[in-house]
Design goal:
This protein has 1 helix and 30 strands. It has 371 residues and is an all-beta fold.
């Protein structure tokens, strides 16, 4: 019988939540790396036993952990995230130049076909690649060598490369998103990059033609239709139908167009999920009601999903990497909150239940569908 494994990164460790295909009863294991911030835990689509975790503390810095047995045991692997060549500077909040510094790994993206290849998005914004299961890392230098690099600046959470989309139909093509710089695309395996922000309009950037400076929160796509992209940005939910060549707004009738995560249904490329919050200064759901919003039309028309979610006095947030879907026949949707709850829906969002409560604040949620 198939099942699922939910990989949860939190402020104080990682947790693994497992269930069979019914997704009614859950086993919770953890915390792994107790007391450490775990920004992201990711599983290899090519090997269900291969997991990677980004672990960090202010005292001991950044570690990458790898498991080859589904999370039963872990070992630290290479941590040589040094910027290649002359680092140069980028722009700080007040416009002054700031040297590139390595702070942490925000996001890990394993290859869909090779369990030993994994990408890492880091702060300050750069892209790294390992082809030996995390033992050694090399910067994909073409990204920071894009001519706009000196204009990149941090969002409120830091200048992080937080999203990596690998095109399943073209191994040379990928997109990344940086807060606050925008979206960048390569069609030659990272040798050269182009900004993919046409149509975005961000506060403080009066022209949609601005090449960089956009605070993109998250990107998502369906593997069967990689030219169609969905975006949650600082304000606005956006869509592109030409691989990021141009964007248009699909916020429609959402109660707020501010939020962090965005996800696409595993079997319905036009079914999209977001979790609106009140504003950039009020990081909690509108009116204290935790609601996931679903569009079955690729945007503009949204419906609130509330069954099983708290509808009063709820003031949690859902962060950019804290929402994911499984690939079972009845698609499951999962998200974690800064209040330490992980919610799951086994019916595409129609109803929800808490898998676990009272974890540390949840930073990331990923899902593996198990054989």
């Amino acid at each position: 019988m198939s099942g699922v494994r939910v990989l949860v990164g939190t402020r104080k460790g990682a947790f693994l939540l497992t269930s069979d295909e019914r997704r009614q009863d859950w086993q919770v294991s953890g915390p792994q790396f107790a007391g450490w911030e775990v920004y992201h835990v990711a599983g290899s689509p090519a090997d269900p036993d291969r997991l990677y975790a980004s672990q960090t503390t202010g005292w001991f810095g950044q570690l990458i952990q790898r498991s080859d047995d589904g999370g039963a045991t872990w070992e630290p692997v290479g941590n040589d995230f040094s910027y290649a060549g002359v680092p140069g500077t980028h722009q700080w909040y007040d416009g002054r130049p700031h040297p590139w510094e390595f702070a942490r790994v925000w996001h890990l993206e394993p290859s869909p076909t090779d369990p030993d290849t994994v990408y890492a998005g880091v702060e300050d914004a750069a892209l790294f690649r390992s082809t030996d299961a995390g033992v050694s890392w090399q910067e994909v230098r073409g990204l920071r060598e894009h001519g706009s690099g000196a204009q990149w600046q941090p969002g409120a959470g830091g200048m992080c490369l937080h999203t990596i989309l690998l095109d399943p139909q073209n191994a040379d093509r990928m997109l990344v998103a940086i807060s606050a710089a925008g979206v960048f695309r390569t069609d030659d395996a990272g040798a050269t990059w182009e900004a993919a922000n046409k149509g975005l309009l961000s506060n403080g950037i009066p022209s949609p033609a601005a090449e960089v400076g956009h605070c993109v929160h998250k990107l998502a796509m369906h593997p069967s239709r990689p030219q169609t992209l969905f975006m949650q940005k600082h304000w606005d939910v956006m869509r592109s139908d030409d691989g990021g060549g141009s964007w248009h707004e699909i916020s429609g009738d959402l109660p707020s167009d501010f939020g962090f995560p965005i996800a696409v249904h595993a079997h319905e490329p036009d079914t999209v999920y977001v979790v609106p919050i009140t504003s950039d200064s009020h990081h909690f759901p509108p009116d204290g009601k935790l609601r996931v919003y679903r569009s079955r039309t690729g945007g503009n028309n949204w419906e609130p999903l509330t069954a099983g979610l708290p509808q009063e006095n709820c003031y949690v947030n859902v962060l950019r990497d804290a929402m994911a879907v499984d690939t079972l026949p009845e698609c499951g949707i999962y998200f974690g909150t800064t209040g330490g709850q992980v919610y799951a829906s086994a019916d595409s969002g129609d109803s929800w239940s808490a898998i676990v409560r009272d974890l540390p604040p949840v930073l990331s949620v990923e899902v593996q569908t198990l054989p």
